[in-house]
Design goal:
- This protein is α/β, with parallel strands linked by helices.
- Strand 3, helix 9 and strand 4 form a beta-alpha-beta unit.
- It has a five-stranded parallel sheet with strand order 2-3-4-1-5.
- Helix 1 packs across helix 3.
- Helix content is 54%, strand content 14%.
Length: 264
Amino acid sequence: MRTKQARQELSTVALTTRMRKFFFSRESIQEALETGTPKQLEYLDGLLGSELGRRAETRKIRMVKHAGFPSIKHMDDYDFSNVRFPALMGKEEVLSLDFIKQRRTLIFYGICGSGKTMLSIALGIMACNQGYSVRFMTMNQLVARLARARSEGLLERTLSELKKLDMLIIDEWGYCQIGREDAQLLFRVIADSYETKSLIVTTNLPFSEWGKLMTDEQLATAIIDRLVHYGHLIDMGTKDWRLEHSLMRDQVVTITKGKESQKV
């Protein structure tokens, strides 16, 4: 008898919780619980549960789309065999996404084709599916967006939008040199993110080269200081996965006397 009563109480609590998520008034919830038959309440609970499930899936799809990922990547497809994690941030910690809750920064460092972008996208999609707000941009896209916002008088609004994110992914850090004014805008984003949200930065440049990238050693030092304080450097290795899986991998190309011949 007690077990049956306990089940009924749990069912009532679950239905009440779901009705509140649909903003039913207390009076309406009480009326449903008092006048509805067990079958009616069971049907209502199932109906609301199904709708909440559909809304959650729709929200995930919307968040992934809004994040701006250039493609869809999944963690099941990722090969970690060449990735070296630091002592304080192992693979399990990264995949748990606890670094987002802790507002930590991850810096993926490795050669072109080492899987930096793919891993950042896969983590970003995982984060979206867990309800985190995420944006993905290359460094050039971010700088261009900030510069455009400044010219249109919308810089503070844009910075505020970025600051509200749970995680910002900045891809291809260091592929192109940027001017001092653009570097200052980038510093604003990094400074606003410091201790407020998680960052993922992918780069093929060691920190010693960042000053040349921004044409300002002091500004580069200030950015590095904020990234590394709560950051973890993850070495992506020296294996070029794109080359490894290239269609041209088994092709031998020879050039003789101005003519190109191909042997497969």
